[in-house]
What we know:
Elements: E1 28-30, E2 32-33, E3 38-44, E4 52-53, E5 56-57, H1 58-73, E6 78-84, E7 99-106, H2 119-129, H3 140-152, E8 158-164, H4 182-185, H5 210-221, E9 227-231, H6 239-248, E10 260-261, H7 268-280, E11 284-287, E12 297-301, E13 304-306, E14 314-316, H8 326-334, E15 366-369, H9 371-378, E16 385-389
Parallel strand pairs: 3-6, 3-8, 8-9, 9-10
Antiparallel strand pairs: 1-16, 2-11, 4-5, 6-7, 11-15, 12-13, 12-16, 14-15
Helix pairs in contact: 1-2, 1-7, 3-5, 5-6
Amino acid sequence: MVPPTPRRVCVDDAAPPSPDAQGYCGNMFITATAERPNLYFVIDRSGSMLDVVDGQEKFGAVANAVIGLVRSLGPQANIGAALFPGYAVSEMNPCAVGDEVFPTQPGDALPSGSCGDGPVTKGFATAVRSSGGVFGATPTAASLTALIPTLSRLPGKTAVILATDGGPNCNSRATCDSSSCIPNIENQCPSNIVNCCTPEAFGVEACLDGEPTRDAVAAIYQHGIPTYVIGIPGSSPYSALLDQLALAGGTARPTHPAYYDVAHLDELDGILATIGAKVVLSCHLKLDSAPPKRGLVNVYLDRELLTYGAVDGWVWSDDLDGGFGAAAADGAASELDADQPNEAAPSDSDSMEPATPNDAADSALAIDVVGAACDKLSSGQVQQVQIVFGCPTAVIR
């Protein structure tokens, strides 16, 4: 499985194997894929996203990071995006509801023999960057609510990534005291005004729109769609609300904060890669083709070898009902030296059996990562899965 790393390096077809291939026993990789999910970005482009942090404009940094993730994921995900406020934003209408700027569609095939982005990545980049600029307020609740019909119609597994740098507002029906008034919270209220969210000052649309935003995220989650919340620098005064959004969206982390807090913009690539791995990588992997022999297959998570077995490692999917898949395990064990440690043995391409037509016993087209290994994979701690053919399967002794 191609890893969802933040950057992708173009290589020539004639080039030797990449350094990433070194250290694997066998080095004959089998392409494995999970169900392709829908990854939908909802990005804040309110006026504060023009602020420069760490030498970078916040909106530009977010755009570059999400484009980098789309580029690296390639065909592993379907990609869509919306920005808020929407196209209708103006000085007279700063709270325009967000718009979809890129309808969900499959990512580009990863390049082979040439560099440069494919048409989907190029189109996505253009849509995100050329959307009328950065301007207006933060109509998060209304924008998420408006997206529910679009998101709920997407087939298969869907996840939302919400990136914002401030508190949601723009609710014309809101009321609040100074403790929930955004200009007061951000020390933008003149000292002679107690509550800047009165009609005489900024107005009620400057109230923190917390509960409706939580409700919108929860409504999306009721459709089985989790929302991953990323707090861009500037969002720290609203950390308690962002934690609540992560909880409502089913993605709260056990650590504090529960959402993904970006302290520095150069952390964005790593955070997005982690979220991408959680969404894209799966414990159930389908193989594009059956291996010539089951007993010569190994699985690696971030270059760490997994042993075969249903306790904490991997199994052939059609062996799950039969315990440990005795036929495959016995076949693998018979090819391992009795004194060999619990690792895949060194390969010798001259002694490797040639590929032969697969019989019924060797026609498996899927594997399952199980136990703690699956928990690690599902948590986003793993960014690369490799299925490698050529050396005896490492099995539990």
